[in-house]
Each structure stands twice: as structure tokens, then as C-alpha cells.
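Q: What would this chain look like folded?
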Amino acid sequence: MSSAVLATFGLLAASFAFELHRAHGTVGDIRVDVLAWLGTGLALSALLMLVRERRADAALRDSEQRYRLLAENVSDAIGVLDLDLRYAYASPAFHTLAGHRPEELVGRSALDLVHPDDVERVRAAVEAAAAGTAGEPVEYRLLTRDGGAVWVEGSMRRLSGPQAAGRASVVAALRNVNRRKQIERELHDSHERLNFALEAAQAGVWNWDPATDRRTWSDSNYQLHGLDPACPVPTHEAWLRIVHPEDRAAVDAATRGIAESGRRGQNFEFRILRPDGTMRWLSSRGRMVSGVDGQALRISGLNFDVSSLKEMEEALRRSEARLRRSEAHLARAQAVARTGSWELDVRTGEAHWSSEMYRILDLPESWQPTREGMLDLVARDARDRLRAFLAQAEGGITPAGIEIRIPGPEGGTRYGWCECEPARSESGEVTGIVGTLQDVTELRLAETRRLELERQLQQAQKMEALGTLAGGIAHDLNNALMPVLGMTELILEELPEDSRSRADLALVLEGAARARALVRQILAFSRKEAPERRAVDLAEVVASACDFLRRVLPAAVDLRCRLAAGAVVLADPMQLHQVVINLVTNAAQAIGEAPGAITVELEKDGATVRLAVADTGPGMDDAVLARVFEPFFTTKPVGEGTGLGLAVVHGIVAGHHGRIGVESRPGAGAVFTITLPATTAVPAAESLPCPAY
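A: My prediction, written as C-alpha cells:
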């Protein structure tokens, strides 16, 4: 009403406002209207109820603001449920907890977010809270937005007071206990494993208070010691008497060490002598148990019967010792037999070798062998045979042994004899190949040397036979020539100088002289003539021969001489001179009209002197090499050469206790090498006469 209307009825109206300062610091505006009867002056407070209502509204708004501020800033998810169990409010923490946005939850049934297995428990908890009989928090799985679930602990309380005026009935605070549940599961699993281990291991539990010497044992610990559980627990000293005498001091020190130093997790093994006379091995682990104040309470531990383990360890030790001895014997046997063993896994291609395999193949033991690696080690011409060899074994067939050639890392070659057989599983499937490799390099070399010695023996026997035959022919021919030469010389002395017969007789004498020279060559080949032996500097002999040869060799042939000083031998210088002449002449004839070179090398190597004559001629094949020193063998056309040149060289060298060899192949020339024993005698100073040829 306006003041004017009120005045008409004899009332006085007044209006005023003031601020209300609350204890927690907020301020509210209050407006008060007062009516007074004009006639009596009585102050009326009819509107005081209005003041109270406005105060209550302000307090309610303030309370709601505080509750909302609290709900939206705590880590727990806060939800308000109505009587139909639908969310009337959800705090932002729901998004962090399960990925749900608060506005999506309002109006939605709370049970829709509960795991089906937990719905009934949650429903019962909410209904109990709504009825005012809420109990302990309930744990259940809250379904997340992405389809998963998270374990929560829900505290349900009935919402009372002005805030519950017809709008909601239960407030729920949900806390994430996912980590706690995981820890509980892990702890439970750990306890289960521990209990199972104790049962399976038949472990004995013991406790000892060093201060009072009070002990407690589990029944299983009594059984470990061979004692009746009804017997009293022995004291520490009594228990030590059960321990083996050799172990008592160490066991006493170990147990007291835990008590004195507080060390945790002390382990020790010892033997006990049980009443029935048997001995058992125990493994004990003890630790100090302390109270909340840090004071030592007792020592707790576990005893395990490890007698079987000790027996197995001893058996294993003996077995390992036997295995080491067997491996050592096998390694020595393989080294003596030069035979290595290997094993190939056909599924993985990996191989395992014995130490002798690495030695044979000259490889470090850090090298990892494989199937392809084994193939790469052998010569290219042997890889296909080795591949087929392994394929047969993989197919379940034991192949015949094969010989393989193995190039060495520094250019040498080794030979190996390889054998193998398939390795099968229990089902009969071929799972691997086991085999051996025997180093037969020395055998091959010995066989080669044997064949060479046989060839040399055959050659020597043949040359000896030819020499004997040639010597006999030469003696007969020499006997036939003597009267021809003698009579021809006498007749020439008696004939006048102008006689027409002198020319004819001179031809007869010249032919007989050539025949005598041929006889001498044959005798030299057959070694029927003993050479004159004296100390000779072979370099001087070779140099003299080379000076002579440079004047008679074709101009297209380049003669090179490389002579080392000090090459002194016991020899007939004339015969060695003839050797050089024959070898160089033979080389020049091999070169023919084409340009070429002949190299004469002389060197001293310890107790031997080596003379080599090399040419750049067409070389010789194996057939020619086999007969090159045979007398009367020649590759020249008929009428060109007697075939005695190299045979004479062979005879002279053999007569000087030397050796001669030849190396040649078609298109690569030839090298004749002579080896003579050296001497320390000093040669006499004299000039070497050059024979007439």
C-alpha cells in the first residue's frame, strides 16, 4: 500500500533497509516495512515473517553454493540420485573417473553405469541409504564411457534438510579404488603362491627370541628334524647339538649374527643328524622381525630339506667331471686322429663343431658355423658334391664318404674326408645331421710323395737299365773305333803331303773322332766314367759357359745370367760346363726362331747349391715331361739331334750326387733345376779351358 492510502485509515507507514553482516563475512540486503497505528503509537511488526523468509532463502543459496563448490573440486565423483535412482546432479569428477560428461548423466539411471554382476549390491546399498539405514561403503565396477570398467568405492547417504525438498533422496560419493583392487589381487596371488610353495616344499617355519631363548616350530619343522611335534621345542644349545659337528660353529655364528647386527635375509646351509641316525641337508633363511618402535622382537625363518638337491648336485658334479674327462679324452683322440665332429640342425641351418674342426679349418672358435658357411669353406668344385652329400642325409640316407678340398686362408690347400648320418627324433623325423671330418692332407701329401718316389724309382731303374745298355754299347763301339783311329793316324803319317788319299783319310779320322766323342757322352750318361772331383766355384763355370753361349746363340735369344758368389761344389768343372751348355742349347732349340729369353740363376741355400735354367719356349705337356731324360728321346725331326743332351745332363748330375727336376706346361716355357751339395773347401785358382764344340 502507498503511504497516502494508509494515512486515510489512520495508519502511519514507514520503510527502511539495512545490510546484514554474516559471521563468515558475506553481506545481504534486507528491506523492512513497518506499520504503526496512528492513534495508539503501537509499533507493529507484521512483516517480520518476510524478514525471516528472506534470511532463509539467502542461507539456502549460500549453502548450495558451498556444496556445489565442494563437489566440483574434490577428486571423488559426487552424484545426487532421486527416488527413481536417476542422477539429478553429477560432479565433473565423473569425467575423470569414467569418461562421462556430467550433463550426459543427469536424468540417467545410476544402475545403467553399474557392471551387471554388481547391480543388485548397488541397488540394495542405494535403497538402504534412501531409507536412512546406510551401512558400509560398497565396492563395485563402474562402466566407463569407452566400454571398460573401473573399480569404485561408493558411500551412500540420505540427503536431508532443505536441500532434499522434493528433488532428490540420496547423495553418492564414488572413489577410484582400481589400484587398491589390483594390489589386493596381487597380494592375494602372492599369498596363494607362498602357501602353495610352503606346502609343496614341506618347509618348516621357526621363530627364536634370542633374549629369552624361546622358540616356536611348525609341525613340518619337527618333521624335518625327525622329532615328534608333541615334544617341547629344543633350546638353542639343544638344537645346535642336532646340527652336524662340522657345521655347528658356522650355524651358531649365522643365527646370532642376525640377532646382533640386524641383518635381513641371512641364508645358510647345514647338515643335521636326526635321532634315527640319518643325515639331512637343510637350507635356512632367517630375518629379524622388529616392532613399530624398531625394537627387535624375534628372528623368524624357514627351513627347507635340500638333501635331494644336494644328492643331485653331487651326482651332477660327478657327471660333469666324467663329462669333462670324456670331452678331454675325445678332444685328444680327435687331435691324434686329426678328426673333428660336427652337428647340423636341418631346421635352423645352424651347426655345432668340436674344437678339432676349428683347428682343421684354421678358424677361430668364435666363428659361428652354418650350413651355407660350411659350403663356402670348401673349394668351388666341391660344393655341389657336398650339397648333394648333405641332401642325402637330410632325406634319411647315410651317404658314402666324400673327399673335399678346402682352400686355406693363406693360399694353401687342405683335404678332408667327410662322413655323416641323419639324426632322428623319437618320432623318426630327421632333425639333424651328425658327421666327422678327417684331415687327410698329410695322407694325400704322403700318397703324392709315394707316387712321385715310385715314379722316380721307375725312372731311375729305367735310366739305370738304359745306362747299362748304353755303356755296354759304348764300350764295344769304343773298342771298334780304337783300331780305326790308330791305323788311320799311322797311315796319314806315312802318306806324303800331296797324296790324294790324305783328304779321304782325314774325313775318316774326323768321323771316328766324332764317334769317340759320342761314346764319351754315352759313358757320361751311364756314369761309367768317374768324374774328376775338386772344389769348384760354380759361378765361374757358369759364367764361362754363358760367355761362350752368347757368341753362338741366335740374336733373337736374350741370355740372362744371375750368379751368386760362394757357390762352391766338389765337381768336374768340364762336366758341369757341359751341363750348362746342354741345358741352354736345349732351351734355345725349344725357342726356335722366335724372340725369347733364357735365364740362368745360381744361388746358395745353406748346404746346397741351386742352378736353374728357365726359358720362354712353348713348354712341354705331361707326356713329354715323363720321358724328357730318356736317352735317344727327342721331339726334334729325324736327323736333328741325338736325344742324348738331357740324358747326359741327368747322368752327370746323378754322378755328382745331385738331383735334377723340370717344371713346365704348354705355353709357359720350362724350368730345369739342379741341386748339388755345397762344400766348404776352397777352390784352386785356375782358368777354365773352353772345349771345342
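The first helix runs from residue 3 to 8.
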